[in-house]
Amino acid sequence: MKLKLHDRVDPKIRIKYRKLGKERVWGIAHSDGLIEIDPSIKGKKHLEIIIHEILHLLWFEASEEEIERKSIILTKALWKENYRRVEINEDLPLQDGTI
Ligand SMILES: [Zn+2]
Q1: 22 near 29, Cβ under 8 Å?
Q2: Residue 11: per-residue pLDDT
Q3: Residues whose CB falls within 8 Å of the CB of residue 88, separated by 6 or more in sequence, listed in order
Q4: Mean pLDDT across the stretch 24-29?
Q5: Element containing residue 35 per DSSP (H, E)
Q6: Are the C-beta atoms of residues 47 and 39 closer than 8 Å to each other?
Q7: Structural contact between residues 71 and 48, judged by C-beta atoms closer than 8 angstroms
Q8: Counting Cβ atoms within 10 Å, is residue 48 exposed (0-12), middle (13-18) or buried (19+)?
Q9: What is the Å distance from ligand 1's center to 98 Cα?
Q10: Predicted pLDDT at 79
Q11: Which residues place a Cβ less than 5 A from the ion ligand 1?
């Protein structure tokens, strides 16, 4: 996703989840450091999109093609090293209240 040029070199990155079907993208990076990610993406694709959008913020002069290339390289390297997302809802209690 394209990012408008901005003069903040080091934005504080925050990630939020929002359905982005209307925008027809998986992620959006805003120049204030907010990254929006579609909640439907999982696994390796999720890792790729997070890396992709962070790279836009850190390297805003790069072309979309360059961002794609670098984010794919990073995703493959981290995935091969077994980096995976931990599910955050696994501590939800069962119906009897136990974990
Ligand atoms: Zn992009």
Answers
A1: no
A2: 77
A3: none
A4: 94
A5: strand 34-37
A6: no
A7: yes
A8: buried
A9: 43
A10: 98
A11: 1, 64
CB 29 within 8 Å of CB 57: yes
Q: Specify the pLDDT at position 93.
A: 84
Distance 96 CA to ligand 1 centre (A): 45
23 is written with which tokens? 């925008």
pLDDT at 40 > cutoff 90: yes
Q: Record the pTM.
A: 0.80
CB-CB contact of 2 with 64 (8 Å):
yes
Ligand 1 midpoint to CA 52 (Å): 6
Calculate how far, in angstroms, residue 87's C-alpha sits from the geometric centre of ligand 1.
25
